[in-house]
Design brief:
homodimer, alpha/beta, 13 helices
């Protein structure tokens, strides 16, 4: 096992598959909350553009490369690099997605999530959950190890809201270097008030927590891991996926379930990634993509805590590592992906 | 090998996958042309309803069970029975589909095909072809043997048009017992005149033949088999899929490609299934689902040449047979599926 992967991830998957759930939530459009898009309006297009980048190295339906306001490019470039180097197949799964990508993807249906301050997040969580479980069951007979990433702008805030509804006290990460913690807490407090829910009230009704203050990525990821029973399921993400683990525990979903993320999440002191995961009793893994060695400054600053996670970047890096790819190779390929990505003509 | 499967299908697939391309074409709405729906308007909903039936045994988005004007139910019931009995995973693939199913499916994009008498069939055949090839490449690392069925009302007429454009002289099958051959030939003649194409003119430009007089199922099936190179690809259908084989030959697509259908197609004297397939040099297989033994008269009459094929019924039956399912079990399960399918409340 290379030293940039912690701890050993064994056994080596035989037919790994990398899924990535793509969703929209209007919670992500609250100004200052998400760095997944240069303007709140563009965040609707970010998940589809991430899918296009990973599938074809072209951005087709978004006018620009998804990037944070500070100029850091989408973590999809790291995921794409890892998948290029390993040849592991990817599949994007739309759940409550408003702007569809122009590449093949699996459609689970559902509407985009609403602004959780204003109304229930999503009324059709159960349908998405069942549809995703159906898909997971199919994939479990084709793959022995399925990674599940996410791309949903604003997802850490809905994750925080769900964690509070389930009774968790700790915080979540941010795509900003400086976590807008106070704003997130305020949004979550408003959402819980609107829903008439106090901390811990929905401990025994996790689907209700999603319906009220969650987002459409959550029932999709949960349904997938439920359907994948018998196969190894690895959630690939930071505190958003830790919240999914917490929901899975509340739903008593069984199976070989773990979580993989980046070193940047592990080092984020504003967030309780380890605390949440440990409380679920599931294993966690993380990879250090070594992006400080990138030749491109907006990529280098990932290592200073910008972006941190997304599009399953940590899990994909881990897959690269266990398949014998070096950190240097991953960084070099990440730079190459970013330099060669085809953008729409202006 | 059971005696109702011809000839031996070997070796036994290890991780088979059953795909079904679902598409719409306005050519299917020409009165009298297709039996896939009780009225031309309803044919738009048939492919999605077939997906819903196979995935959940429920019809969700169509007001009734898809059936032929004579009352024969959709061949999806046989496919569903075969997949139930074998546990083989299915995945529906939308290409130019107007009415989307309420179950998980893969989206390839593209608009529904137009009435080939009036305008070019589909302008985006190349995009669908490339998207499908991308999907095929992914699936080739998960499965060793992929069956590809279709559900597209009106598809035999567009198949006939494409065959003529490629220079083939023979006929195609029909979902009606009495093939409306004269009407089909008239529609095809009008379409070729409109496109300024004479028989055989597009022998060397198969994608142009699809764009002018084909339908959106064709580039999807072709892209899939191209992407599946290195894996066994079996087209599951009658003369529509034979036309895809002819297109694949013209495109010089390589790989382990064959076709599987029902005995009802093989026995159809109005159509040149064998002739087309033999000219492509590819192997064909067929299964006799034995539906004359059904307890339900509208299913029994399949054996008299109603419906004949669709939703990969022949290929799915073959998969059941090679997995040790008897003809009696398949018929019994087909009846059970039909008797238990959940319909929308009126």
């Amino acid at each position: 096992m290379p030293e940039w992967i912690y701890p050993d991830f064994e056994p080596l998957p035989v037919r790994p598959l990398f899924l990535c759930v793509i969703s929209n939530t209007d919670t992500g459009k609250i100004p200052g909350l998400s760095a997944a898009g240069t303007t709140p309006e563009l965040t609707d297009y970010t998940p589809g553009a991430d899918a296009e980048l990973v599938e074809t190295n072209r951005i087709i339906t978004m006018p620009e490369l998804p990037e944070a306001p500070g100029g850091s490019p989408t973590p999809a470039i790291v995921t794409k690099a890892a998948l290029n180097l390993t040849g592991i197949p990817s599949m994007f799964v739309a759940s409550g997605l408003r702007k569809k990508p122009a590449v093949p993807y699996v459609e689970l249906g559902g509407a985009a999530g609403s602004d959780i301050r204003m109304s229930s997040a999503l009324p059709d969580a159960r349908t998405i959950y069942e549809n995703a479980a159906l898909l997971g069951r199919k994939l479990s007979s084709l793959s022995d190890c399925v990674f599940i990433g996410e791309s949903i702008a604003g997802g850490t805030t809905t994750a925080l809201a769900v964690l509070r509804a389930l009774g968790y006290d700790c915080g979540v990460s941010s795509s900003f270097q400086s976590n807008p913690t106070a704003l997130k807490e305020e949004v979550v407090a408003q959402a819980l008030r609107r829903a008439g829910v106090k901390q811990g009230d929905l401990r025994k009704d996790p689907l209700k927590a999603i319906e009220e203050v969650g987002d459409p990525m959550m029932p999709a990821a949960l349904g997938l891991i439920r359907g994948l029973k018998g196969c190894r399921a690895v959630l690939a993400g930071g505190t958003q996926m830790a919240a999914v683990l917490a929901l899975a525990k509340a739903l008593a979903i069984e199976g070989d379930i773990s979580i993989a993320t980046t070193k940047y999440i592990i080092e984020d002191r504003s967030a309780g990634f380890k605390e949440i995961v440990e409380s679920t009793g599931r294993a966690y893994y993380y990879a250090d993509p070594g992006l400080e060695r990138s030749k491109i400054p907006p990529v280098q600053i990932y290592a200073q805590g910008y972006v941190k996670e997304g599009v399953g970047m940590g899990g994909a890096s881990l897959l690269a590592g266990i398949h014998g790819i070096s950190q240097d190779q991953l960084v070099e390929e990440t730079d190459r992906v970013l330099m060669t990505v085809e953008l729409p003509k202006k």
